[in-house]
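Anyone able to model this chain together with adenine?
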Amino acid sequence: MTQPIAILGALEAEIEALKAVMQDCKATAWQQTTFYEGLLFGQRVVLAQSGVGKVMAAMVTQKLLDSYQPQYLLFTGVAGGLHPDYAIGDIVIAKDCVQHDMDAIELGFPRGQVPYTEYRYLATDAVLRALALTTTTPHPLHEGRILTGDHFMTKKALHDYRYLTEELAGDAVEMEGAAVGLVCTYNQVPFLIIRTLSDKANEAATVNFLEFLPVVAANSFAIIEHLLSSHQTI
Ligand code: ADE
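re: yes, here you go
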């Protein structure tokens, strides 16, 4: 049997549109997580909600890789925009991702680098990324760098954390991508992170996040449909 394609999102709102169109869906529970196996746009997939933050994302990703041996993994959800030209509703296709709160600088490691390893900027799969960028969508698509940390970023924080853009050159910030990316890289499984902007990581971020999450969470639906429908060309 062909290996499935894995799809993860942190919150229910970030995967519900995909779950709604899955066919022949079989649910398997593991602790508080449910894995949904079925058909999506003609492909075998396994879909799950990771929960919020790096630990939840890493834990569920490793379990998913061990249990289902997917060909590749797509992570979908929302993020806060850091790039000044990006607007709420725009979609960021990650070229790479990094843990912005990994800080062992005092030990001589650059910000974002996992100490005593080469893991810092984790590259997404070039073929998946190029294909995702050819999707026709009503929302602007950007190829950018995703920063990940266990911190919901607002302007107040940004004042103290200018390194997000100045040092790490981040385009969007969220709370799971680089954790998923590190687990996938470690396991040699190709991955792609697709994020729609729910806010601009500024003083309005909390209000915008709550308002726009349900509205924009499905923006990346078209990317996943395009990737799965074009699957045979990957
Ligand atoms: N996800 C969506 N918006 C975010 C923000 N401002 N900070 C961290 N994660 C986010």
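Residues 54-68 form the longest helix (15 residues).
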